[in-house]
Every structure is written in C-alpha cells, then in structure tokens.
Automatic annotation (TrEMBL):
Residues 305-675 form the Exocyst complex subunit Exo70 C-terminal domain. GO terms for molecular function: phosphatidylinositol-4,5-bisphosphate binding. Component of the exocyst complex. Residues 34-75, 191-243 are annotated as: Disordered. It comes from Oryza glaberrima. This is Exocyst subunit Exo70 family protein.
Length: 689
C-alpha cells in the first residue's frame, strides 16, 4: 500500500498556537493514558459486544480495562524501546499476509514516550549527534518511527478503531516537527549555539526562536525579510559535528514530508545570519529614496561601508553558504541544497545591488567619481565568483543528467550584476566628461593675487592624478561608454587617454585666458610659469598620469615654461639692463656726462624700487622654480651693475653726492633679487657701508 503522509496540523502557521507552545518551553510531559482511557474503554467494550477483534487487540484492550482498578499506570514511565519494538512489528506486519494489530493504549503510550524523549532531550546538545555506526540519534529515530506510524494509521479506511490513535500520534508528530524546527533554526543562526548549550548558556531550546514570527506564512511574504538573526559578529564556520546534526535534522524533516518548512527555516536562519554579519561590518539597509536624498558627506561613508560589506558577501559569505547548503542537504536530492543557496544568493545580492542602483541615480558630481569607480570594481570582480558557482552547478547537473533551474537563476544574478556594472560605468564616464563643462564654466574675472597657482589648476591636477590611479578601470569604463566624437577617427586610440588629454588642453587654454587678466605682462608670465610648472611636476611625479599623458606632452610643456621664463626676463629686466649700458650718451669723447649719469642712476634706483615693491609680492611657490628665476636674474643683472658701478662710481664726489645717487651696492642688488617671489613686498634697503 502506498504511504500517505500525515496531514500537517496548523501548528506551523498560527502564531497563537506557537506562542503557547513556546510559553511551555517545550517541556512536553507525557499525556497520561487516563486522559483517553474512558474513550478507549467504551470503544473496546463496543468491539467486544460485536464479537471482539483479533486476539492481540482484545488482549491489550482487556489489559487496559483491568488496569483501571489497579494503581494508575501514569505513575510508570513508558518504555520507549519496548513500545518501539511493538510499533516496528505493527509497521512490518502491515506488509505481510497476516497484518499485526496494535491497540489504542499502545499508540497512546508510544506517543507519550516520544513526548517524554523530547522533554528529556531538551538542553542536551548530543540529542542530534549521529552514532558511531552512522545510526540516527534516539530522538531522531523516535521521530522517524512516529512519522511512519502516523502514515500507516492514516492509510486505514474511515471508521477504523484507530481514530483516537491517529489524532494522538499525528498531534505528537506535529509537536515533534515544531521542536525539530526550532532547534534547526537556532543551530543554523549561530554555530556557537552548540558550544553555548554545553556551557548551559542557552536555556530553552526555543528561547532564540522567539525572536522570529510564525515560521511559514503561506499567504505570502519573503522568508528572507524576516527579522532577527542574532548578534552582529560574523559567525565562525560550522564545525563538522554541527553540520552532521543539521543534516540529520534536515533529513528527518524532509523524510516526514516537511521539506517546504525545512527549506524555509534554513532560508530564514541563514538570511538572518548574513544580515547580522553585514551589520557587524556597519552596513545597514537603506531604501533607494533614502539614498537619493542623502547628502554626499553621509553617503560617501555609506559607500565605503557597502564596498567592505559587498566584498565580504562575495568572497566569504556566499562561499560559506554554498558549502553549508551542500553539506546539510547532502543526504537528499542535491538540487534542494543548490536551490536554497540560489535563494540566499539572490536575496543577498539584490539587497546590496539596490544600493548601487540608488547611488547611480544620484546627481552627478566630480567628487563622487572615485567611490563610483570603487563600486564598479567591486561589482565587476564579483562576476568570476558567480561564474564559479554556475560552473559548479552545471557540472553537478550534468552528472545528475537532469534539468535544474539553479544555473538559470545564478545566470540571472550575473545578468543583474552586469546591468548594475553598466550603470555605474556609465555614471563614472559621465562624471569624468563633466570636467570639461566645469573648466569652461570657470571663467572668473578676478586674477589670482601674485600670479600664484590657480585653485582650478590644483584641483584638476590632483583630481586627474588620483583618477589615473584608476587607469585600468577607467580605460575599461571608457571602452564601454566612450564618446565617439573624441576617438572615432583613430581605431586604436584609448578613449580614456583621449578624454584626459581633452581636459588637459582645456585647462591649458583656460589658464592662457586667465593670464590675460593681469595688466603686467611680466606677472602674466609668472602666472603661466607657476601653473605650467605645477602641472608638469604633478605629471612627472605620478607614473600613472605620466603614462597616460606621454613624454611628448611633457616636453612641449617644458618648452612653454622656458618661453614664459624668457618673456618674464625680457619684460622686467631688459629695461633694467638698458639703463646699465653706456650707449654713447653717458660718455662723449671720453668725457662722462654727469647729468646723464645722474639720471641713469635715478632711473635704475626707481626701477629697482618698483621691482622690489611689486615683484616681492609675487608668488612662486615651487622652490626649484623660485631658485631658477633668482639665479638666472642675478647671473645677468648683478655683473652688469657691478661693472657699471666700477666704471662710473668715481664720477661722484665721496660723501653726500655718492650716497644720493648710488643707493645700492652689488651685494644690495643680490639681496633684493634673493627676496623676490616670496610674497612679501618691502622697500629698497639702505646702502650697505
């Protein structure tokens, strides 16, 4: 006869019953025979009036009736081993020609014995341990036996004498399954539960399960959304002995016909454990609306936390869950474990990928580029992990020679990863291209004081230097989302390099335009020198950006710098050197024209005073460039002045006349030059004695 699984009671869904059961703390005392004795006696007397039943049944019935006058049998504990033998004989006899009968009293005693076994095993960590010979633990053996008994009894036609026994046995079976379910859930949430139980720290076997609601809401709802989940620490791996116990419990639930409940308990517990591990890393779930409205200062921190949590999920969490599913459900169809793992992976991945979707939807801003690239890299690097899972499932399916939807479900996850990666890449490319608009929009009309490095130059060069640390990723992004107007004419070009050079050229043009804001041509050259030198130093100081920009560009900018230097010297010091030349006006026919000489000294002193006053306030922040400028000026001007003094200083009378016109010595001139470009304007020093 085909085995008909017992009808599941409502104990797995209504919260009221579960709360009552949990309130009892599963201290399942044996239900006494006297509770059912009147009904049993009436039923047996009726059967005797009809001529009795088979001898075995009648004998046991008479024994039960006779015992009513004796001391109550409830004082004696039911012998599980003896009753199990009777149940086994009954189950075995049903397949033979002369079926073996069983009495209501025996059924009641056996049900009470199973309840007592559950009550006594509560708090005992070894109750699920597998025997040395692979034998099931006594509690699991009793549960399997009462399951087989319930199936056999429910197969009896209506009107059977086992009506009361069926309700009694199936009721205990459902309570046993609830007991197994709670133990299964508790052990799955944290592998340290078993260790804590040995130390007497867990209390009731169901204490932890009270954190969650009804186990299975068949009306709907995602088990992964259930709350709870234990502490925030990442749980250690499950030890082999714990996995063996979990496997035994799962096998028992599935064998009894509770596969749906078993798999959903597993999903709830492990989803909670995954959530707890993410919370321990600081990651908290947030809706898309919350992310979109969040200020970048707060969101930036959340992105960093997300990246850490995502790496943990991909590289640690999913691998551990895949291994656990395979080991716990190794005793049944392997597809069950794979299906559970896929559900876990889907819940975990979709929850985390929703965050990336939200970040990609936020308003674009230059400061977001690097966090977007970090997320892009994390999602990109997750694809090989999913591929490995797909390959493992494909190999298993091929070996089993049967179709399975697991591979398709994992492929869907991979497709979702690719979609999110594409959106992040598109966002990153757009943010980088927006630099062009930022440069064009920066058309300030106020020149930077002292011709110093412009803030735009500092910002962009540091930005580009940092961006080039993501060179490989940005090249990948721009190959996927490049602008055709930049590299359409060159099939072998690098679209990222082309975009970066476009930004660099725009910056150079912008600085050229800003230099024209200075009325003094010499200061204009200082400004271009400062900014050009800053750009060149950043490029040469970074192998990444130097590799993108190329040596040809650097040489061109070095040439520009030399030209700016020449322009500055021409604009400032050519006029000074002209004053120090004898062009046939100071000396006429060997005679010094003192009025002309006096005027030359006056002009020279005035020029130096103006240079010191103005160019002392100019800024050259690069020490090497500052030194190069001072050395080049002094090398030309000081010798010319020293020669001029040596030739004409004797034309003045010593004393007041000499002091009136010769205000600077050669050393004074050197001191003035050494104080240029440090941002401090001072008056001309007195002549040294």
């Amino acid at each position: 006869m085909d085995r008909i699984p017992p009808q599941k009671s409502s104990s797995f869904s209504p919260a009221t019953f579960r709360e009552e059961r949990l309130g009892r703390n599963l201290s399942l005392g044996a239900i006494k025979i006297s509770e059912h004795a009147p009904a049993v006696r009436v039923k047996e007397e009726a059967e005797e009036g009809r001529g009795g039943v088979d001898n075995a049944g009648a004998g046991e019935g008479e024994g039960a009736a006779g015992e009513e006058a004796a001391p109550p049998e409830e004082a004696a504990e039911p012998d599980l081993a003896m009753l199990s033998a009777e149940v086994d004989a009954f189950l075995a006899g049903r397949e033979g020609d002369a079926p073996t009968s069983i009495s209501e009293v025996t059924l009641d005693k056996f049900a009470s014995a199973v309840e007592q076994e559950m009550a006594q095993s509560e708090g005992d960590d070894d109750k699920w341990a597998v025997g040395e010979n692979g034998q099931a633990a006594p509690l699991l053996a009793a549960i399997r036996r009462i399951s087989a008994l319930a199936a056999a009894l429910t197969a009896v036609p209506e009107g059977s004498k086992f009506t009361i026994g069926v309700h009694r046995v199936t009721g205990v079976l459902h309570r046993a399954m609830a007991f197994v379910e709670d133990e299964f859930h508790t052990m799955l949430e944290d592998p340290r539960v078993a260790k804590a139980a040995q130390n007497g720290d867990t209390g009731s076997a169901t204490g932890k399960s009270m954190r969650r609601g009804p186990s299975f809401n068949h009306a709907g709802g995602d088990p992964a959304s259930d709350g709870g989940g234990g502490g925030g620490d990442t749980p250690p791996p499950f030890p082999p002995e714990t996995v063996d116990r979990l496997r035994a419990m799962a096998d028992a639930m599935i064998a009894v016909g509770y596969m749906t409940e078993c798999t959903q308990v597993f999903l709830v517990a492990r989803r909670n454990a995954l959530d707890a591990s993410l919370q321990s890393l600081g990651y908290e779930k947030a809706s898309i609306d919350d992310v979109v409205r969040m200020a970048w200062e707060s969101l930036e921190s959340d992105v960093a936390t997300w990246i850490k949590a995502f790496h943990h999920t991909i590289n640690v969490g999913l691998s551990a869950e895949h291994d656990l599913c395979a080991r716990v459900f190794a005793g049944c169809d392997a597809a069950v474990g794979r299906a559970i793992f896929v559900d876990l992976a889907r819940c975990a991945m979709l929850q985390m990928l929703n965050f990336t979707e939200a970040v990609a939807m936020t308003k674009r801003a230059a400061e977001k580029l690097f966090k977007v690239l970090d997320m892009y890299e994390a999602v990109r690097d997750a694809a090989p992990v999913i591929d490995a899972f797909i390959a493992a499932c494909s190999t298993t399916d091929a070996a089993a020679d049967e179709p399975d939807t697991t591979t398709d479900a994992l492929t869907d996850i991979k497709t979702e990863l690719a979609s999110v990666r594409s959106r992040l890449g598109e966002s990153a490319a757009a943010i980088f291209c927006d630099l062009e608009s930022s440069i064009r929009a920066d058309a300030g009309k106020q020149p930077v004081p002292g011709g110093a490095v412009h803030p735009l130059t500092r910002y962009l060069m540091n930005y580009l230097k940092y961006a080039c640390e993501y060179k490989n990723t940005l090249e990948q992004v721009f190959h996927e989302h490049h602008r055709t107007d930049i590299d359409a004419d060159d099939e072998g070009s690098d679209p990222f390099a082309a975009q970066l050079m476009e930004v660099m050229e725009l910056l150079h043009d912008n600085l050229e335009a800003k230099s024209r804001l200075y009325k003094d041509p010499a200061l204009c050259s200082i400004f271009l020198m400062n900014n050009g030198r800053y750009m060149l130093q950043k490029i040469r100081g970074s192998p990444e950006i130097n590799a993108v920009v190329g040596e040809a560009w650097s040489r061109k900018r070095s040439t520009d710098l030399r030209q700016y230097h020449k322009n500055y010297q021409r604009e400032t010091w050519s006029r000074v050197l002209t004053l120090l030349r004898d062009d046939g006006v100071i000396t006429v026919k060997g005679s010094v024209q003192k009025p002309v000489l006096k005027e030359r000294f006056k002009q020279f002193n005035a020029a130096m005073d103006e240079i010191q006053r103005t160019q002392g306030a100019w800024v050259v922040s690069d020490e090497q460039l500052q030194s190069e400028l001072r050395v080049s000026i002094a090398a030309v001007v000081v010798p010319a002045y020293r020669s001029f003094l040596g030739r004409f200083s004797q034309s003045f009378s010593a004393g007041r006349q000499a002091e009136k016109y010769i205000k600077l010595s050669a050393e004074d001139l050197e001191a003035i030059i050494d104080e240029l470009f440090d941002g401090n304007a001072v008056s001309m020093p007195r002549r040294r004695n």
